[in-house]
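Deliverable D4.2, example record:
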Amino acid sequence: MTEAGSTAGYAAEAEALVSRYESIAFSDIHAAILPLLPAPPGHVLDIGAGTGRDAAGFAALGYRVTAVEPTAELRRRAIALHPSPLIDWLDDGLPDLPALAGRAAAFDVVMLTAVWMHLDPAERHRAMPRLAALLRPGGVAALSLRHGPVPPGRRMFDVSAAETIALAEAHGLRCLLRRTDGDAQLRRPGVTWDRVAFVKDGVREGIPGLHAPGTIA
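Output generated by the structure prediction step:
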């Protein structure tokens, strides 16, 4: 991803974004997702890791984290804010994640927090099979989709949960969670969120809802 594309606007606002994102507790923003994840230790891929809030939250729980962030200004601040031997920072981005290609890595968890809606339709169709391939059998992918007014200078698309679920299912990912929330943390007028989670075909014991076709809350 380049500043002219999916990450447009983030470098210029890096300082303000650090303050905004770090004001939201990891456990609050992911309260619906965390019970679905394989227990630590495991390997988390945090795509669009931003200020490192989530990477640090996962590391504190005992996961190893590969934190992908293509915006250098955010990545530098994140490394300084959240130093941890459990976090490996990587300059990479969707839809292809080329820097990961040579690592032969597979992940227990793939997180895309406020990322997917920055990709256009063609990019989403390229990215989903890449994400599915990066998950181990039984691994969980979780996405959040922002709806509402687009901030000036940003590139966003109104991507529905239904479209995302259908695309994921076409690549072997089964829906575990679909829910709609308001913008509870930042309370921006007109902003809502869809939160969806998927499991890759395969059996992993101990994930609540694993055998259900989907959970709607």
